[in-house]
Fold these 4 entries.
Entry 1:
Amino acid sequence: EAFPEALYALAVEKMGRDRIDLSPETLFETFLVTDIFPNTDAQIEASRAIVPMDDSHRAQLASDSIQAYRTEEVKAIVKEYMARLRESFKRAVAVHDFRDGAPMTLDAFVELVKRHELMPLISKPDLRQIFVACSQIERMKNKDAVPDTLSLSSLVLAVYHLADRIYGDALYIDKYPTPEARVQKLLAKMYLLR
């Protein structure tokens, strides 16, 4: 019962009593945003024991995902949403690069994921691993591709990975047992359930 008061006392101690420029509410909010939340996120991610993938594992991951998602059903689902994906790609890129036709950077990829409210469903390290894996596949296919970026076709591969990571885990595998079901759910969440 005394936890809120103890947390506020910790905020005052940490932020300093001399911060008279801040109201008690602002002081507490600043403490949560700058100290508690980042540390909590770091602890959660560390507790998952996420091991960085090496290049061969990334290539295998991408290859496995491509094979599992190379069905006519998945292609039909993606085709249905392609105009929306293209528009999302352009919007996310425009936030970080004003050139028309620029490739997607990691920041733009994160922007797209945030904009479609997927961040609560996937960890930041998983998101980064997906981006890096898809970017490397892009470079393997196209030697002229800008390093550490995605094209629209690589974004489609990233969508497959997102669907697989979010809806292919133990929590959802019974509900979304096929690649088609996972892609349909992800794209519906991104574009229809908003």
Note: Residues 107 and 170 are 29 Å apart (CA to CA).
Entry 2:
Amino acid sequence: MACWERWHLACSSMITRKRRLEGATPSGAPHIRQKNHTPVHTQFTTNGQTGPKNYRKVLFMTDREDPPIQPIVQTIARSIASAGGRAIIVGGWVRDYLLGIEAKDIDMEVHGLPLPRLEAVLGTFGGVITIGRAFGVLRVKGLDVDFSMPRRDSKIAAGHRGFRVEFDSDLDFEAASRRRDLTINSMGFDLLTGEVLDPHGGRADLDVGVLRATCPERFAEDPLRGVRVAQFAARFGMDVDPQLIQLMTGLDLGELSAERLFVEFEKLLLKGTRPSVGFELLRETGLIRFFPEIDALIGVPQDEKWHPEGDVWVHTLLVLDEAARLCDGGRDDLILMFAALCHDFGKPETTFEEGGRIKSHGHNMAGLKHVERFLGRLRASNKLLVRAVKALVEHHLAPALFVKQGATPKAYRRLARKLDGANVSMELLTRLAFADHFGRTTPDALQREFPAGETFARTARALLVEQEGPRDVVLGRHLIARGLQPGVHFNAILARCRELQDETGRQDPEWILRRVIG
């Protein structure tokens, strides 16, 4: 039984009920923007399966005559051919082209030309930049195309740099492509002839929707491939070959750099139509253990009244999928997705049972140290991302609580200020709250109803704090104009002015100053 079928069986009733309503939109939340996940030009047909794994079958776009390639790239390919070489597009571009997805990044592998000769040919089109001489990668200035040599990689040490690289311009494509991770990424495309080179059966695997290792005995050479498989599964809705699942269980992600892990996590969160599929694969293969803050969510119980869907792990997977629906392609998408993943990191240590009910008081605050540890392990240098995600996690309960408790305009303005200090908005917090609410199977969530979230969004909009916090209208210069001498007492005066501004909503600095200092 495939991993997605086991995931479906584990949560079958929950998934089935939610899928019936999946296309619905929050009726009262027109400002919650949603992303269209259908890939450009992709054609699908359902295959009759109801689980979240292989829910669509790819139809190849074989009738496409002209691939979306810049004319200059075709001209370079012809020059390479005239010099006795053969330019073959490799990697993800070929996969995406066959899927009918708009393909952007082009990697060109040049056979039949030694590196100096290739450099000379490319030099006729402009300055040649060496991107990675150790891996034989060249680029023409102003052209976003990587040109590389066929090569053999031999693993000689730990880490992604622990390879002995041998360039061989005469290496045939079948041998050169054996170093690639998956069959769907091991195809080539001859730009001049239109021929698809497919020595490892990648096209057939695309057709049936299966992820399979190109060379099983070499798959473990780069442990990052385990996370890549997870993001491809989430991104394309493809099944995973049982042998590949077994190979993944033996990987050691501990030798990977934070930077490489972050890149794949980013793709898993932003490119996956259902990120839950990728994370469930990490759980099934045991790779989730390398992310202890996520691993800790598995098996943590929740009160059935608020979370009939199951434990914190199941809830988090559903929240991830809901958050993915609310991404809009903007800069905040990654913040939203990491916040969705991390929002309940505090529940494992705060969950307890009392009077027959399961509670987790203060889990939003308890989770902050875990968020910082998790994100720091992935990308410690990005302090802005960490601060933004922590702010959303800390306040993710606020939308529902504000409405329930009848929060004042002052409370809304103060919250907007706090979020603004972390460079996030009330609108983004609202999106997280909607994802959190719809990531459960309560009756209102299944009906796509969240009145509290709608009221919170409407109030923030009416108070003009939806996109940013209030700006101070009383500044130091206003105090100086009144004859006050600068000093530490300015801070106390400005704080009182800010408090009055948030309480009243007034924007007139003189009106505020008269009431603060007379």
Note: The longest strand covers residues 106-111.
Entry 3:
Amino acid sequence: MGVTDEEVRDYAIYLGVDLPYEEYLLPIAKEALLAPLPPQWVEHVSASGDVYFYNKEKDESLRKHPLEDYYRDLIKAAQAKRAFQEKEAESKGGAGSGGAAVVKDANIERADLHEEVRRKSSGVLGFENTPIHEASRVVDAGVTIEEMEEMETYLGVDLFKEPDLLIWVYRAVVAPVPEPWEEHYDAEGKPYYYFPPADRSTRKHPYDAYISQKIAACRSEGKAVSDNTHMLKVCSAN
């Protein structure tokens, strides 16, 4: 199904894009407009002609596309990235001069992140100048600085050097648990994920591999920090 430029622009405004100043976000709006329905969701039209979406497994109906909030959050993350880049450009690299970044540890499990990052970041001077802190001023979707910082650690991303990957760090934080996966907690309160069809469980979130692949793809493409429009076309693709 094709869409016109006008339809994309109208939908971008609906999602919270400030046109014409944020035209670099149009690729995300187009992706959202063309997004297929998740499994178990179907589109219907009411007797009055209004479109709604129905989840036949949960017997749940929505007036908006099930992925609309996801794309709104993605746009907020992209706006946060741009805000950080502009601030960094104004300060000529001063954002990283306030103190050391949190040390990355590839052996950290997702379930251990909260405690590990709290330990490593305690007493680190200059935390208020990190990319995550700048992003948090724009992203307002129930995501905390600590959640973003710990996910940055888990994914092995350094947002001082790779601010274009902020979108994927944010996506990892807000990623839902897809059906038929189920999220559970062990006796220590740590999350794990159970897949009933195969009767198996894992500590890794079902979307971890996908997000890691996207990060690797963005890195291999050599995305420049200043090349925002092209970066979004590649790094926000499903």
Note: The CA atoms of residues 67 and 224 lie 29 Å apart.
Entry 4:
Amino acid sequence: AFRKMLLELDGSEKLYTIELEAVSIVERMTTVLEILNTAKKPVPFRELVSDPTSKGSVIGTFCALLELCKRQVINVVQEEACGDIGIQLANLDLDISEVTSAIQTSEFETEAEEDDAVVHG
């Protein structure tokens, strides 16, 4: 039915292809923690995004930050409305290797494996 509707559309309509980009939230979380641990000061959100031209990279990094906030590993600071958002470790004495290990064995990995099994059979 969907294909039939598309065929009935005026030929002047442009069809678009959407390509999905795989972004690992766990990898983004780990990378963000490594950057923040090295910086020891608030880092602008833009500097945490691996590829600012990629929507997948921006969204993946944002999701990673949300999860790190939920786990109370990072603090987010914004000094003025609509100003830059800075991200820093909640505890500068935090053992990043422990947090990284916990993240990599977290529910994300299990969910990703389950999703992969569903998608790829």
Note: The chain has one domain: 23-120.
